[in-house]
Amino acid sequence: MTEHVSYGALAVPSRRQILDRLRATDVPTDVKELAAATGLHPNTVRFHLEVLIEAGFVTGQPAQRRGPGRPQTVYRSVAPPVPTSGYQFLSTVLAAQLHRRDAGALAEEAGNSWLRRGHAPTAPTPGADSLSTATTTALALFTELGFEPVHVGGTASGQIDLRACPFIDVARQYPDVVCGMHLGLLRGVVEATAPNVSADLIPFARPGTCVAQLTFDRGVAPA
Fold it and tell me: Nearest CA to 131 among 161, 164, 154, 108?
């Protein structure tokens, strides 16, 4: 099998559709079922399957005999899907490794450490509203990171909805790692701008949305 064959096997959308269908099930599937699922002609499905087999993505084997005659061939995927983005692949591999350890604490420390290495915001202006300052600074950070954050409520509220996590697929697999890192970023911002404010993160508070909550420490008067 050459590199050209592997690349060409995935260059045709209908061929990729067949492969995705096989990856979505653990049950070996025959040509008739694949044709019905993809809307392709059975002969077209057979041709694409031959290419996928040659490239090493699919294997075929005789189905269990249910009567006289030659048994049908059924197909299954043998190559697991990989992330389409190199960054997604890297983050998935590292998150899986970190997940085996004390993931939450290590991930939070990693996010906090990143801020301390020259990324922390400057100290607030004396006399400024510390909760408002911390909220605004957190909004700026998560906006730049691609979270599409939204400040919810009035000026006295420190709630931020994070609506578009750039690592959503990895976060669903390893929330302790990914969400822990984001919590470290959030708390790092708050510590740098408002020492009398506490921060917490609620992962997946709503479908596709995490919620950051900033509140004054109990017993500590606002600045």
Answer: 154
